[in-house]
Amino acid sequence: MKKRPTIYDVAERAGVSKSLVSLVLRDSPRVSDAKREAVLEAVTALNYTPSRLAAGLAGTRTRSVGVIIDDFSNLWFVEALAGLRTALAEGGYALSVADASLNAHLGIDPIEAFRALRVDGIVLAGEASAPAVARSGVPAVVLGVRDLGAELAELPVIASDEAAGGRLATMHLAVQGHRDIACVSAPGASAARRERGYCDAIAELGLTPTVVRAPDTGEAAAREVAAELLARAESAQAPRPTAVFAVNDPMAVGVIGAARELGIAVPGDLSVVGYDDSPIAAYGLVSLTSVSGDPRELGEAAGQVLIAKLEGGATQIASRSFTPRLVARGSVAAY
Amino acid sequence: MKKRPTIYDVAERAGVSKSLVSLVLRDSPRVSDAKREAVLEAVTALNYTPSRLAAGLAGTRTRSVGVIIDDFSNLWFVEALAGLRTALAEGGYALSVADASLNAHLGIDPIEAFRALRVDGIVLAGEASAPAVARSGVPAVVLGVRDLGAELAELPVIASDEAAGGRLATMHLAVQGHRDIACVSAPGASAARRERGYCDAIAELGLTPTVVRAPDTGEAAAREVAAELLARAESAQAPRPTAVFAVNDPMAVGVIGAARELGIAVPGDLSVVGYDDSPIAAYGLVSLTSVSGDPRELGEAAGQVLIAKLEGGATQIASRSFTPRLVARGSVAAY
Asked: Cβ atoms within 10 A of the Cβ of A2, count?
């Protein structure tokens, strides 16, 4: 095992004194730009992270944790935050949240804002900031995001197995007797994993896959591609699907909306399964069967891992994968 | 006009030196609990706010602004943040966001976490933290929340006129020929203002008001009270309303869900108007006519006011009220 780099290693590489490194880590204004740059270059190159003790002595501990998400309008993170709170309560850490666009007006990545605020640790729950977090050297854990690339390969990842979730949704429809099951998918790594689970299940069942991809992950785009898919029966090019798996809940609502416009009853003539078990799935008008990745449980696990890093100085922590579950409601009927 | 208190006034009242006050304001650990308490008591009593210059000299400027909201799952704030960003880009301020429950695990108010992070200013966009913000002495502006009580009477309030919004929704239904217009309301100051607008319009029109109040602001609670209201026709105690104004969009979706369960067509047999113009209102399955408070515009105005306070040291800034507008979709028909 490689020896953990110390502040002396950073000082040597940067050609400065240990106390100057300490000043840079505290964001002191009393440092020239050239020296600051040399120190930060050395911190990155050596992958240096201040130990808890050293940070404590240098007065840089704020007992706060920054959470970086991609988008505040994705409500998944609200539940994940509740789990993080449970875990971080023990260590007495305060939480701050930023999304990728929160400080876009400054042209800076959220990690930069959190560094300026001297957070002790980072929970990375979005894809956009991954490279910047890797460069920052701030102790971090990845929540709910996979395959972030080699830069972040050493960070522990706490995530739900989304391919298993896509498989689960598809099998649920097959067990109800459906054979013409389509998938309404979207761009992005998360949608791709859910779609792969669908394809795996369809292959396993010996059925024919039908995947249509909307241009984005929103309701309107899904409504449009679903309308095309469902209207196909008219031209008899392909059998109309009797069931659809949509890779998120707003897209599933789009599918239901398209069906309604065409006079296709849900679940009478078409069964629909969504993903994420968001609040809208439980609305009476929607009553959507959905896959839940239990974000609260994930958040709690991520908080525990981060505390282990911050308090114990642990460097090698295993990633953890959680299996999603199905939440049955009124949008699926037997075929 | 009262003279603005200085750091010397605080030091004199607390019985300590000016530099000790400065240490406390920088959250230095090198201060005894007793002295820290005395200084914070004096800061509160004198309503002391460090001037920009003094703060700059003391090294306490972080060029960051904290936004306090009640609940991350209310998407109103996502648009308001976009407006804030536009305004704060000029001053180069970074943004952080916290909701009332984000640091509930520590038993501290979000304002305390923001003080620890040394934010320069606060945007208060929720009701829960109002008293703590008033005590904190951090320069603040109130966004979207009214009637916070005498403690905060001196803070500028940038808000939408929600009574005007309730009136607008009701008048829109009346113009379409509806005479039996009910209001599905909820607890909370915001719902109360929207309901008051409804009542004012109904009185002005010489109609009879029907207000039912759900136990909370959610979809399920609204669905339940709407089901009761719409089933009344059976017992012939009162005419069934031909139109409903719900005080937020999820509640309006609850009303539509209840109507559907009872075989009442929307908008054929029942017109529905919601409030907030949230993403769900634009979903094809929902297609909800709603009132928009233009949170982006509000956010931008609030950011401008905060910059005026932080940069110009302005102490007397007028509050501003914005008039909401109606966004017509498919949930209203002529009677």
From this structure: 6
| Band of pLDDT at residue B191, cut at 50, 70 and 90 | very high
Residue closest to B139 by CA, chosen among B194, B237, B64: B64
Classify residue A195 by burial, with Cβ atoms within 10 Å: 0-12, 13-18, 19+: buried
ipTM: 0.76
Residues of chain B with C-beta less than 8 angstroms from the C-beta of A256: 285
Checking if the pLDDT of B280 tops 90, the result is yes
B98 Cβ under 8 Å from any chain A Cβ: yes
Which of B73, B98, B223 is facing A75, going by the closest CB pair? B73
Instruction: Give yes or no for B176 touching A (CB within 8 A).
Output: no
Contact residues on chain A for B280, CB-CB shorter than 8 A: 280
- Alpha-carbon distance A236 to B29, whole Å? 76
- A284/B29 CB distance under 8 A: no
When pLDDT is cut at 50, 70 and 90, the band that residue A39 belongs to is: confident
Cα distances (Å, whole numbers) of residue A185 to A51, A196, A251, B292 = 44, 10, 8, 31
- What distances in angstroms separate CA A282 from CA A286, A331, B29, B223, B250, one per listed residue? 7, 11, 49, 12, 11
pLDDT at residue A51 above 60? no
Contact B324, B293 (CB under 8 A): yes
Q: Walk me through the domains of chain B, giving residue ranges and CATH numbers.
A: 1-60 (1.10.260.40), 162-293 (3.40.50.2300)
- Structure confidence by residue, pLDDT tens digits, A189-244: 889 999 999 999 999 999 999 999 999 999 999 999 999 999 976 566 678 999 99
- Cα–Cα nearest to A135, from A110, A117, A152, A153: A152
Residues with Cβ within 8 Å of A193's Cβ and at least 6 positions away in sequence, in order, are A146, A162, A163, A166
CA pair distance A139, A129, nearest whole angstrom:
14
The alpha carbon of residue B147 is apart from the nearest alpha carbon of chain A, in Å, by 27
pLDDT value at residue B1:
38
Q: Is the pLDDT of residue A104 over 80?
A: no
Asked if B253 and A95 come within 8 Å (Cβ–Cβ), the reply is no
Helix or strand or coil: residue A258?
helix
Closest to B246 measured CA to CA, from B269, B223, B230: B223
Task: Specify the pairing of strand B271-275 against strand A181-185.
Answer: unpaired
- Please give the mean pLDDT across all residues of chain B: 86
Say if residue B241 is preceded by a cis peptide, omega within 30 of 0. no
Distance CA B125, CA B104 (A): 17
B275 vs B248: CA distance, rounded Å: 4
User: CB-based contact (8 Å) between B107 and chain A?
Assistant: no
The Cα–Cα gap between B331 and B333 comes to: 7
- C-alpha to C-alpha distance for B96 and A115, rounded to whole angstroms: 12
Interface test with A, best of B249, B283, B307 (most A CBs within 10 A): B283
Over residues A74-102, the mean pLDDT reads 83
Residue A58 clears pLDDT 60, i.e. is over it: no
